[in-house]
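Researcher: Go.
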Amino acid sequence: MSFRVISSAFKDNGFIPPWYSRSQDDSSPPIGWTKPPRRTVSLVLLVTCIDSDTGKVYCHWVMYNIPPKANTIFGNQPRESVSHDGTLQGINSFGGIGWDGPADDISDQELHFNLYALSSKLELPGGSSYHDVEDAMQGYILEEAQLIGRYSPH
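Model: Structure:
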């Protein structure tokens, strides 16, 4: 089995349950992974959605310096920039720290959960922006895995 990102909350290309949306609990979904490459020092999770009308990329969740041996990011993560294990969370496109789920005023959203295996930790403070994290990880990416979650308001 190769490097993959998975969730117990939804299958790849499956629908994200409504309690992860902004209209309900807005709690982060559980995320797991399998077999990062051997030289992995840290992981980065970027959850993005592209607006089909404008092409603008919205970032729903930024996590970095995730220890690769953890294998799991539990659901309902606190909205704090630093966690007990050194994992950092950044500012999403909606101005908050941590997860900000899909909104009910946009139909048929496709969220991309991209998990990157890096050969280094990122020298960034907690609360860094999506773009800062994306820029800092360039040159350190060993492998990328993706999980797609769909959301459609009811």
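Model: The beta strands are 4-6, 14-15, 31-34, 42-50, 57-66, 72-73, 88-89, 109-118, 141-151.
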